[in-house]
């Protein structure tokens, strides 16, 4: 009964809003979020579902363009000291918080004290917010005056501006946190292109156009173009896909096994039956899928031997795997851990498909170990079972026996962190747009469970270059160092890179302006829907 009342309220609101604002259905952008949304507080924007929603509501000091360049957001300019320790951000004076009862005069402009409050809230140990780590490099910060916000780092960190683009660093008003406290998660007040209107949890979420939003297009028109955003929560991806095909939603992202063969052919093109109904866009995604070896696995002689690790790297056709198992979505990861789309991507191949060489390496291992046939166990979850079985089959042809161990995702993550899985499937999606993010996986001081180094790879030269990279402000010099570090890792083969993922979007024919970017951030402020 309670749900029926909520739904009745929703439709009453929407019909009244249509009459009052005089906008049509085609001015509402609709999409399904199968993973649900747990909070609209930017301090909890730790997964894609939350990030996409929060991105419509909040702004930070800086933002990324579609090529991963840092550009102004609420800060119209900034300066960085020569030693890379001091950052001064000059704020724009025309950014307003969303209209809300928490303010004495319904709204007000953003000032530097708001960032001081927001950052102090983010690092408050009593709150234990998941995004607090983004300020670990910060020594102190303060509002110099209403329009200048100062940050001092503990040590030089060239990727710091990229960190500040994360939604954790969004500005929030003290008045709203004070008034709504824990309920700020479902009553957000931000500065974004859209403002919160209604949330029936697990059912529907609605944002409305922010009439005070500061950004304008090249012709001087105030953004956003849309009047509203409506998000559904259908956990079944096949059902979400069917709603999209029926025109009941405007957009879906990603390729799920439940519909991948229906919508795409083996070459990654739309099936003929959909070419006149929907459109598709693809682009590089900062996500590397790989197999990892636990390098302290002394009990497993095969995994501990570089001959076997290199044999697996050379022993299967990644291009064939992507074509037949991922319908052409992705790029063969033959270059290293740093993915395509990242400025420091190393274009020199590390491991391409060489089955004869792989077979020779396996034979050499047998000779050195008394003729014993190598056998390894590969741990994965069910979502990647088809990829692992493909590699298993290819390596069996070359004389390597791979047994597959299927685990629930949570169990697999936990046991990898504990060093219990000796050979495992993993992936890494960049938290911020700098290759240091990927290289941190191999820094010896980052061993799991305290850090992201799940392989426990350790190399003194790599560590020294990693430390040195923090002092390099010049991007070109730092990128060369990153590429050298990537080569060191690949030479030791602690991982088997599988593919560099791609962002894939599907949207209705009447939708324009959805950008595609390497971090797969949904940006709706420039989206238009036109009449069919």
Please tell me about this protein's structure.
By secondary structure, the protein is an alpha+beta fold. The chain folds into 2 domains: 234 residues, 3-Layer(aba) Sandwich (D-Maltodextrin-Binding Protein, domain 2); 218 residues, Dipeptide-binding Protein, domain 3. The protein has 16 helices and 19 strands. Strands 11, 12, 13, 16 and 17 form a 5-stranded antiparallel β-sheet that branches. It has a 4-stranded mixed β-sheet with strand order 1-10-9-8, covered by helices on one side. The protein has a 4-stranded antiparallel β-sheet with strand order 4-5-7-6, covered by helices on one side. A hairpin with a 2-residue loop joins β6 and β7. α9 runs antiparallel to α11 and α15 runs antiparallel to α16. The radius of gyration is 25 Å and the shape is globular. The N terminus is likely disordered.
Question: What is the class of the largest domain in the CATH system?
Answer: Alpha Beta
Q: For the record, give the distance between the C-alpha atoms at the N and C termini, rounded to a whole number.
A: 38 Å
CATH superfamily of the largest domain: Periplasmic binding protein-like II
Counting helices, strands and paired strands, the structural category is alpha+beta
Number of helices: 16
């Amino acid at each position: 009964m309670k749900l029926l009342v909520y739904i009745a309220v929703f439709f009453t609101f929407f019909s009244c809003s249509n009459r009052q604002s005089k906008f049509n259905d085609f001015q509402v952008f609709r999409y399904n979020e199968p993973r649900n949304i747990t909070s609209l507080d930017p301090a909890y924007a730790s997964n894609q579902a939350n990030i996409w929603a929060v991105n419509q509501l909040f702004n930070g000091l800086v933002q990324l363009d579609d090529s991963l360049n840092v550009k102004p957001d609420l800060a119209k300019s900034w300066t960085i000291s020569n030693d890379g320790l001091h950052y001064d951000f000059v704020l724009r004076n025309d950014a307003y918080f969303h209209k809300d009862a928490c303010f004495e005069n319904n709204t007000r402009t953003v000032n530097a004290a708001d960032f001081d409050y927001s950052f102090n809230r983010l690092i408050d140990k009593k709150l234990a917010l998941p995004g607090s780590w983004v300020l670990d490099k910060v020594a102190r910060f303060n509002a110099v005056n209403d329009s200048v916000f100062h940050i001092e780092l503990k040590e030089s960190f060239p990727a710091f501006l990229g960190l500040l683009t994360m939604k954790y660093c969004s500005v929030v008003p003290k008045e709203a946190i004070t008034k709504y406290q824990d309920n700020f998660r479902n009553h957000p007040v931000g500065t974004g292109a859209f403002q919160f209107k209604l949330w029936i949890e697990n059912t529907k979420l609605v944002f409305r156009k922010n009439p005070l939003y500061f950004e304008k297009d090249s012709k001087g028109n105030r953004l956003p173009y849309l009047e509203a955003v409506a998000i559904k929560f259908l956990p079944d991806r096949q059902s979400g896909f069917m709603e999209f095909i029926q025109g009941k939603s405007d957009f879906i992202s990603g390729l799920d096994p439940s519909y991948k063969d229906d919508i795409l052919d083996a070459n990654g093109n739309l099936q003929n039956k959909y070419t006149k109904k929907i459109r598709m866009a693809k682009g590089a995604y900062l996500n590397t899928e790989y197999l990892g070896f636990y390098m302290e696995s002394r009990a497993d002689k095969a995994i501990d031997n570089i001959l076997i690790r290199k044999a697996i790297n050379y022993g299967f056709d990644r291009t064939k795997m992507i074509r037949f198992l991922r319908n052409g979505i992705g790029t063969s990861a033959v270059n290293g851990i740093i993915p395509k789309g990242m400025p420091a991507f190393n274009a020199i191949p590390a491991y391409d498909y060489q089955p004869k060489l792989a077979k020779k390496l396996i034979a050499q291992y047998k000779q050195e170990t008394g003729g014993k046939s190598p056998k390894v166990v590969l741990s994965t979850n069910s979502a990647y079972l088809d990829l692992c079985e493909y590699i298993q089959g290819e390596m069996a042809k070359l004389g390597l026996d791979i047994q597959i161990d299927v685990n629930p995702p949570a169990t697999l993550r936990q046991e990898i962190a504990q060093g219990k899985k000796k050979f495992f499937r993993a992936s890494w999606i960049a938290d911020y747009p700098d290759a240091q993010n990927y290289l941190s996986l191999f820094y010896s001081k980052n061993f799991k469970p305290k850090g992201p180094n799940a392989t426990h790879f350790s190399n003194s030269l790599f560590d020294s270059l990693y430390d040195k990279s923090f002092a390099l402000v010049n991007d070109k010099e730092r990128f060369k160092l990153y590429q050298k570090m990537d080569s060191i890792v690949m030479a030791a083969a602690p991982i088997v890179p599988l593919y560099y993922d791609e962002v894939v979007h599907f949207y209705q024919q009447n939708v324009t302006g959805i950008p595609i970017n390497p971090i797969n951030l949904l940006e709706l402020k420039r989206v238009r829907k036109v009449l069919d």
